[in-house]
């Protein structure tokens, strides 16, 4: 009997591998230790969960409905300008890219606009962060569960 998989982990692993091979900055997934040994600049990817799209309901069941997911990119750098330049390059590179079982990556509303200072314990800027939000459609992948 055939079934359909919505393998978000495989997609996220492919996105991380793409970032690792495309950009020279170190890439971190989901979290980042905030200490003085952090290499600057760095890229952080925060993945978002799978969610149903507003349209595209299937008569064949919910696993074939339209789904979306996405990720946020945070670039940490020594200056706001450097963070913004790297983020602009990331956006130019990733927009329109397709991964296995996804639609094209599109840019959506940012977490916050422009670069922000990250303050140290003395309330002095120690690094800057710039963010962008991206999303993509997720396709169900047919799998055969026949023994």
Set down the secondary structure blueprint.
Blueprint (H helix, E strand, L loop, with lengths): L1 E4 L2 H15 L4 E3 L12 E11 L14 E11 L2 H15 L11 E3 L7 E4 L5 E14 L2 E4 L3
Parallel strand pairs: 2-3
Antiparallel strand pairs: 1-8, 3-4, 4-7, 5-7, 6-7
Description:
The longest helix is centred in the first third of the chain and has 15 residues, at 8-22. It is elongated, with a radius of gyration of 18 Å. The chain is built from two helices and eight strands; from the N terminus they run βαβββαββββ. The protein starts with a strand and ends with a strand. Helix content is 20%, strand content 37%. The chain is α+β, with helices and mostly antiparallel strands and 147 residues long. It has a single domain (2-144), classed as STM4215-like, CATH 3.30.2000. The strands form two sheets. Strands 2, 3, 4, 5, 6 and 7 form a six-stranded mixed β-sheet that branches. It has a two-stranded antiparallel ribbon with strand order 1-8.
Quick structural overview:
Helices cover 20% and strands 37% of the residues. The protein is of the alpha+beta class.
Supply the key terms.
alpha+beta, 2 helices, STM4215-like, 147 residues
User: What overall geometry do the principal axes of the alpha carbons give?
Assistant: elongated
Superfamily (CATH H level) name: Phage tail protein-like
Number of strands: 8
Radius of gyration: 18 Å
Count of helical stretches: 2
Order of helices and strands: EHEEEHEEEE
Largest sheet: 6 strands, mixed
Low-pLDDT sequence parts: none
**Overall helicity:** 10-25%
Q: In angstroms, what separates the terminal alpha carbons?
A: 9 Å
The percentage of residues in β strands lies in 35-45%
Structural class: alpha+beta
CATH architectural designation:
2-Layer Sandwich
**What is the CATH class name?**
Alpha Beta
What is the CATH topology descriptor? STM4215-like
């Amino acid at each position: 009997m055939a079934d359909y998989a919505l393998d978000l982990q495989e997609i996220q692993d492919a996105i991380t591998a793409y970032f690792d091979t495309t950009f020279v900055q170190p890439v971190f997934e989901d979290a980042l230790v905030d200490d003085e040994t952090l290499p600057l600049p760095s890229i952080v990817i925060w993945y978002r969960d799978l969610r149903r799209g507003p349209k595209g309901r299937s008569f064949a069941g919910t696993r074939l409905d339209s789904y979306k997911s996405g990720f946020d990119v945070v670039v940490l750098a020594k200056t706001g300008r450097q963070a913004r330049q790297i983020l602009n390059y990331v956006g130019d590179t990733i927009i329109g890219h397709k991964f296995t079982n996804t639609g094209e990556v599109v840019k959506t509303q940012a977490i916050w606009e422009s670069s922000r200072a990250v303050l140290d314990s003395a309330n002095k800027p120690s690094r800057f962060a710039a963010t962008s939000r991206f999303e993509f459609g997720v396709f169900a992948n047919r799998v055969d569960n026949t023994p």
